[in-house]
Amino acid sequence: MKNDLNVRLRQQLTEHKQKINGLENLLEMRTQDRLELSSDMSRQYKTMQSEMMTKIESLEKKVLDLKSKLAYTQHTYSEEKRIYEATMMDKDALIEEQNMKMTYMTNEFEAMLNVLYSCFFKLSKT
């Protein structure tokens, strides 16, 4: 009986050792999987962070370019507007001058016609 008991205990001991070895192997595999997953996630995070920084830098450059273009466009617009307004003022002054000349010429012509009419009227009476 003792022999039987010893054999069974040894078998159980062997089975338990095998179970322990199996569980240790499983634990080692899961630990390795966790480490690989953690490493992979860390690598992905760094890649995403790098991509995000590149995109941010690109967008910041684009913003600077657009600000520069806006400033140039605003400057060009201001200059064109100034030139346009100066041209319009010159043309308005010219139109006013021409109107004054026309008024003067109209008055002169009217005066000449009145003199001529007076002369004809005097000649017709004589």
From TrEMBL:
Keyword annotations for this protein, in alphabetical order, are:
Cell projection, Cilium, Coiled coil, Cytoplasm, Cytoskeleton, Flagellum
Annotated InterPro entries? DRC12-like
Annotated coiled-coil segments of the chain: 6-69
Q: Which domain of life is it from?
A: Eukaryota
Indicate what this protein is called per its UniProt record.
Answer: Dynein regulatory complex protein 12
Annotated compartments = Cytoplasm, Cytoskeleton, Flagellum axoneme
Say which family it is in: Belongs to the DRC12 family.
